[in-house]
């Protein structure tokens, strides 16, 4: 999905840590490199002597930031959701450090399904069966009911950021629910679907996941229409608030260089909602 870090030293550092984690967990690297956002993660298919094919994911962060929501997200998600929704099981973890960096390696179930789309921003229509949508809706409904003290969106951030990026007052969030937190077609597999990358899950406005999937799919009106049909919450006041929050998040991300191609569609949707 993403490219390796531009700094060769960072690439080498991550590869050394990945190889060391693989050795610690007793697995053999058996697939190509898959780099995450800004080179923060490195993953690959691996072979475990007992479990067979698995997925090894290495997360890197400066040592003084090796804590908190993102660092602990996948482990906490496994405790709450493994066996209850379609997500890769978490088998094992290990942590290490070198120089000024900390690493967490996670050994997951290998899912033999490709992502629905290689980028978060959907650019071509996907023809998914009704069962795909029904499964996704059922899983998200379950996630919404699971209590958590993790927070994906804060009212204070909304109050500060919505006026900055949309020129309107931040809406008051009255209804909260647990959300996956990063729902787009690159985090949904093409057949089941499995929901991938749970590190950002937590409390968010009701309808947040549906709003996120919609916002990332605005360049493909046919797919966006199916999202609205599948998640009627988007047509309610709660869904309007969730969409405003998500649009603000993605505009903030675009201001830092992420997915600028989405900005006109985000602003058009914000105008409709306002």
Automatic annotation (TrEMBL):
Q: Give the superkingdom in one word.
A: Bacteria
Ranges where the Aminoglycoside phosphotransferase domain occurs: 151-226
Q: Which InterPro entries match?
A: Aminoglycoside_PTrfase, Kinase-like_dom_sf
What is the protein name given in its UniProt record? Aminoglycoside phosphotransferase domain-containing protein
Q: In which organism is this protein found?
A: Streptomyces vastus
């Amino acid at each position: 999905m993403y490219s390796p870090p531009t700094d060769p030293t960072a690439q080498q550092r991550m590869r050394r840590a990945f190889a060391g984690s693989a050795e610690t967990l007793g697995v053999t690297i058996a697939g190509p490199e898959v780099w995450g956002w800004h080179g923060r993660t490195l993953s690959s298919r691996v072979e475990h002597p007992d479990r067979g094919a698995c997925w090894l994911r290495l997360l890197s962060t400066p040592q003084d930031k090796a804590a908190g929501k993102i660092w602990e997200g996948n482990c906490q998600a496994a405790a709450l959701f493994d066996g209850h929704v379609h997500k890769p099981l978490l088998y094992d973890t290990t942590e290490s450090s070198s120089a000024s960096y900390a690493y967490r390696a996670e050994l997951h179930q290998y899912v033999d399904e490709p992502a629905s789309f290689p980028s978060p921003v959907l650019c071509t229509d996907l023809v998914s069966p009704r069962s795909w949508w029904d499964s996704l809706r059922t899983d998200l409904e379950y996630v919404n009911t699971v209590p958590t003290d993790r927070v994906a969106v804060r009212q204070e951030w909304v109050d500060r950021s919505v006026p900055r990026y949309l020129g309107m007052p931040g809406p008051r969030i009255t209804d909260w629910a647990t959300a996956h937190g990063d729902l787009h077609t690159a985090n949904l597999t093409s057949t089941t679907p499995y929901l991938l990358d749970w590190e950002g899950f937590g409390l968010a406005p009701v309808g947040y996941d549906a709003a996120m999937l919609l916002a990332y799919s605005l360049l493909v009106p046919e797919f966006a229409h199916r999202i609205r049909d599948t998640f009627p919450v988007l047509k309610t006041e709660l869904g309007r608030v969730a969409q405003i929050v998500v649009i603000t998040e993605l505009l903030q991300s675009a201001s830092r260089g992420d997915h600028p191609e989405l900005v006109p569609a985000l602003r058009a949707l914000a105008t409709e909602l306002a």
